[in-house]
Amino acid sequence: MKWHPDLPLVSIERADGPWLFGHDGARYFDAVGSWWVCLLGHRHPAVVQALRDQLGELDHVMLAGLTHRPVVELSERLSAMTDKVLGHAFYGSDGASAVEIAIKMSAHAWQHRAHEKKQSFVCLAGGYHGETLGALGVTDLAGFRQPYEGLVRPAYVVPNADARQARPGEDARAVALRQARHLEALLDERADQIAAIVTEPLVQGAGGMIFYDPEYLRQVRALCDRYSVHWIADEIAVGCGRTGSFFACEQAGVWPDLLCLSKGISGGFLPLSIVLSREEIYRLFLHESASQAFLHSHSFSGNALACRAALAVLDVLEKNDVLAANRLRATRLSARLQPILRHPRVKHFRQIGMIWAWDVADAPADFSRRVYRVGLRNQLLLRPIGKTVYLMPPYLLSDSDIDVLADSVIAVMSEVLA
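Above: the chain sequence. Below: its structure as tokens.
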């Protein structure tokens, strides 16, 4: 808030598609999907209609001894999308709560298997998994975690497989294989104490859009199997098609033990998070005694409106073959952004699915604020992470939308880097 006397809050009155409209009549292209949640753009008509229909039937009911059609259908559809490898769904309210659920479920599951010492976790350098205390414990970003160190139980941190770390003669896969050896060494020494490793598959978002090869996930799966450790895949930001496949893990051909979804699953309309679990973990909690069950609850677990929004999002993605169309959109936008790629201060221009990122050499301390400010003047909402500028626009962009976005981004970067 200290910044806002000089940089006033932008008051948004309404939104439509990729556009936000201010009370002052200005408009802004939402190039970051309002923190990566608005997959289909704002107020997609199919989701709006689904919510209107649901309001005529059921708003909310607790999932304690009760259930309803949207939560059952959503659970079954998501499970089918994993080929039923992840056959059960546990519902929370937001991304951080999904991570909390997953790490509690993992540690508790090991207790049921008489491995009480397995209460520690592993995360990747630069990883981000949310800002509640358990999620902060598996987050390796000091700005978020350091003020609360006394409250947080820290995880083991292993080097990530950032493709930018490639040595001469290495490609991204070689980096993944080399960096996986650090995880192997840790598990070889401490597997009896470790419940799970938590990763953001393919892209570590808040850490600066760290891209890495799918081979690293294959190595994680194999090492977890060898050392009896769970793998928790945090697909909160990268799931729902953002990396090009609905689940990022699909690109590695492996499935985790627990998978977290949130953000885009409800299209940005309502808070919703889901932890998908393997059958063997679910069965460990089937017990007559409440103390042996998984006692974790959220008042809005499986909210009927949020689940109905998620079902509508899945319908749009499926019926319109959106992920296939996104490949054409991504090709067009990447081509239009070539002037940025050629700038001498722009390094490591990268793209996967509907994510673009590039780093700026010699970026000043106020770089991200400056890009944000210049972006607003150019009708564009951008939120750089340190020296890294990224785009996560809505999926359903027309050719003219893509051209407007590219022209605006080029104009912003030209001014900031002048």
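The chain has two domains: 12-30+321-416, 49-319.
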